[in-house]
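Q: Can someone sanity-check these two? First one:
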Amino acid sequence: MMLLSTLAANNALAQGTAAPGTITVQVNKPGAPIAKTMYGLFFEDINFAADGGLYPELVKNKSFETDENLVGWRAIKGAAALSTYLVSSQQPISATNNHFLRLTTPTASPDAGFINEGFRGMGVKQDAEYTFSVYLRKGPGNVSGLNVTIEEPGRGGNGPEAASSGKVLAETKITGLTNEWKKYTAVLKSSGTTAKARLKLTMEGAGTIDLDVVSLFPKDTWQKRENGLRPDLVQLLKDMKPGFLRFPGGCIVEGRTLDERYQWKETIGDVASRKPLINRWNTEFKHKFTPDYYQSFGLGFFEYFQLSEDIGAEPLPILNVGMACQFNSAELAPITASGPNAGNAATGDLTLDTFIQDALDLIEFANGPASSSWGAKRVAMGHPAPFNLKYIGIGNEQWGPQYLERYEPFAKAIKAKYPNMQIVSSAGPSPDGPLFEAASKRLGVLKAEFVDEHYYAKPEWFRQNVGRYDNYPRTGPKIFAGEYAAQSVAIGSPDNKNSWDCAISEAAFMTGLERNADVVNMASYAPLFAHVDAWQWTPDMIWFDNLKAYGTPNYYVQKMYSTNAGTTMLPVQMPNNAKNGTDNLFASAVADDKAGDIVVKLVNYSTEARPVKLNLAGVKKMGKSAKAIVLASNDLQAVNSLQEPTKLAPKEEQFKVSSSTVSYTLAPNSFTVLRIPGKR
């Protein structure tokens, strides 16, 4: 990495570097305000982002409610010590949680039990405490208790046989069993640290025992909440100071079929009663076949709203518009119960009205008073105050006439009841082409407020399209750049890397977003999270294992923009009136009126150091010391990793300024943010 200060600039000039070009920042001719939502986050449950990631429950399939009821569970030594085991629904805990595990052993044995493998193992830390809970019911025989052990895997690992016991990290015994379902809890403290622990449950005595809702939950959660989130991952998000949080996706909103769509009402209330659903990313890619990928919904819509509030972001929920994923079944909910628009769905009574009502109910859940039906449910979950929802998305990434004919009545119904709600609509998965053009045109006619545009492309596309929004209509819908990421190899390739080449190209593109802040009001990189042992898609902004996490170079680019967003766009004139990006020099600028700074963002996509002069036209009351925040590497293929989490991370330095003309030398292959004290 290289950080060149003003002194270094003088040295570079003395050694023959080209004379600096002058970039004029028109401080005295401010442009559009920077939307508070300008830079935000897009969350989708892909790559084990929720279960196994942000949601820190360590037990996979804790209620045996998955399609294959024993996903995540293995009988010890192939059930050698058990006479029978089965998943039963005879007299369950509840109608919504109607499966449980029944174990029977003819003789007492330390191997009469099951092991849960967790999410590619369980991450536990030395001296950390974990709350174990389970519902138990005693059957025939003399079973006196349940032995609970957190252990490192033995010789058999977490494989099919779960052959041998490993090092015990924590253990306890549950006693006092009855013939009726009863919840038991215990706190275990780990004596060691490992990313690959597992939970072992064995019977004490001989006979039959029923188990359900098995949980092992860390006490160390964000804000120490009982059903809280993983604190290191939340901290990485909060550090970005995001303007919004879009959730829960992404294609999981749609589902492969309408039966597998995301239904927000199934994700609130008692966590133990939330019924899991297959994740549509489980078998989508042959290179990452993960049939064990389910959504437990422990992280549901209430928790998403709460997370948004915690990190200071506007919540932006995305709801199904009556369409399953068009890359899969493309199933449609009829617009009416019968007629030419009935679509191709074998959905019975399911029509578009169902989806519209879900949206109206969600707004009431988020914003309604305690006296309202859905507002009362929010209050009952512990949040009396409204979440102050302002934005809602209709559909994720749909396209074609099927989407547009559903969007129109959907938007009309929301506006009729909630006229101030800001609606985000879809322009499809591609940034150009006939379907994109048709959607953009029609949504303009319908006076849509936000159009969600997505672009996944090679790094050079981002540098070449820096002027994408320069000629967009200034009076039409605002743009939400909802999903974008440079792809180092190809879209969807398992070989894509979060390289510096990708990140610096995104930084260059984002100067074009900032220059057009009167058109672009929201932008977010995608996807957000990925588990290093359980990903389906790459690149991703934040990577983690069961213990640690790190931000990619792309993360730091996004953070440098979001923490230096400013309040007002300032027009920028490049050297010799060239277009932004000419000779691989990119620039944008904002005024940060709250801090009293002029903030200039500069990308030098070049192997050579580049001296520049900034003419701050019309600036007033300049300070004497400025700050440079620099992300740079001579290696465009550089990446961060769990082993080197900050191999490429921003560096800061102070430098002196003496006039409205500021000299600075940009490091090779660098993204630089200059914060210069000065009022307009």
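And here is the second, same format, sequence then tokens:
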Amino acid sequence: MGKKGQSRMKGSALRNIGSAALAGIIMLAAALPAWADSSSDKLTLQLKTGSTAAVINGQTVQILKPFKKNGTVMVPLGVFSKAFGSEVKLEKNNVVKIGYGPHQISLTIDSHLAWVDGRKVKLEAAPSMMNGTLMVPLRVVAQGIGAQMNTGSAGEWVISLKPSEDDASPQDPGIDSDVGKTKIGNSYYGWTMNYPSGLIVGSGDETESIASFNDAEEKYYIEVHASDEDADLSTDDLLDRLVEDAKKGGEMVVDRGTFPKAKVPYARIVTKDGDGTFWECRMYSSHNRLYELYFADLQASNYKDLNKYAGLLNSFDTSFNPADKTVKDLSTVKNGMRGVYNEDYGIALDIPADWSMDNADMYYESKDGSYLKLNVSTGPKGDSLDQWGGQMKKWLEESFVKTSYEVVNTYPLEVSGEQALVNEARYNYGDGWIREYEVMILKDGYRYYVEYAAPEDQPADVAKFKDLMNGINIDFTVVPESFGSMEENTFLIDKSKRTTKTSKTYQYQIRIPQYWSANRDQFELSPVEYQFVGGRMMITAEKDSSFEEAVSQLKSFYNEAVKYQKDLKLEKVENTTFAGEPAVVFSIHQVKDGIPYSARQIVVQHNGTVYTLSASLNDANATDIQKKTLDETLNSFTFTKKDDVKTTAAAGQS
């Protein structure tokens, strides 16, 4: 049914501390702001583990000693209100919410899960009460409200924050940002609905395309989904989709209908799922967007019981009025950019809101093929930016033929307060030139690498480079605290290094270049697949198969394909010997999606198993070293005996 992230909250047990006492602590934390001197444009907080003295905007105050827990610095919650005037409020007796401008953090006492601007964050140390004071993780809260963290000369933490234009006034720092809000919605995706008292905002996703809610008494649960569509759909089409989704999810449809004359036309079904829960599912199509509303009545015994929530559901609207101050906006998108943060590496950045995001791997991509990716690795001893930049140029030289790439310029650039080196280059796989910026930062023995690439026929994307770099903020204390020696960047691995891989199940071994990336590398299964710049290799193994039949099928396939694919040429079919066995090699050249490449398929049989080794290499990437590496890899393929007990580890590396 597409009800992603069903995360309605189970009854949360009350903590040992009473709700009234905790509420008092929250009120105290919100009541003592200390604002920066008018001569400064930043608010500052300085504190140190083990010390009761903190400096807040130039004034020394006494606090409960910060301490380390599981490597996490824990500080009193109140310091954030005192230093920055952040909003603090209590929900459900043990959920503390901290707000500052557009930022919202949700912490649960004694829980290792938190939410930062709608993103789930795992905490190494949970918020906890100590001597009547709530202690919270420093970095998560500080960076969650948009502050920068650095270390001072005496080892103290220095947290600085520029006052937010959206912040509460100094005279009323404890304001509840939800007061006066009667509607809730998302300005980026353009929807609103009523905001009844007791509605609790739950989990969503990084792109804000999903929002979830439940009420404080856990009577109902709501999800709102928004996605782009090529065109608006009719209510009949929407109903067909809803019914099909319900069937796929194994749910019983107990009521259905279309409402083409509603303010926003929609389709509706009511289903009963395997747990006996009744769901009302609505689908709207407006402004080339598809909106899905899923509502579960957790106490209903009949589908008609959902009628009492008709007012709430009918309030859903596919529009958002930014001038309406009664609407609580769930979106964090500003000026078309969305802030994201990778806690593992301490890297915050701004990404265009319509890009796809893989924040765990720090890879972000536009619909037109532009992308931004980041990587952190250990630098070799005596490392320098010039040395690193030279290595990147060598990598281009080894990966692209001379007519397919160009190094445009090399120049310095400041990124996140550090001196960086930029290699600006362009390359062409055959389907158009791409402008690439390779940004290199060295700090404390670690390499921070940022790569931005955009097709040159998308000049607006090319021009985004500087804005993207200005939006990067790296806490350079995180990696040294969290990592030792890190994995080497695959770009810079010596192309002569190999790892021997062995399959006991299929009785073969092969030496794989370490700079290749594995797509599928379970050698006791079939197939296995590796890729590298401009190329790939795959091995399939089929037991109790026929060599003659496999060869015949490939011949028939290519003979037919060349008739209809003008850009496909079967260059030769060669009978040969491979790994000591008779084999047939098919060699082709093809242009696919504008990219010309050569490919080989080697078919060989051994002990009743038919093996097919497939390899391809783009013309743009057919450098001497790439061709030599691919040939050597294929030729390293050998068969092993049944009683061969070699393992990948025993085979070693070279």
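A (reply): Looked at the second one. The two ends are 51 Å apart (CA to CA). The longest strand covers residues 581-592.
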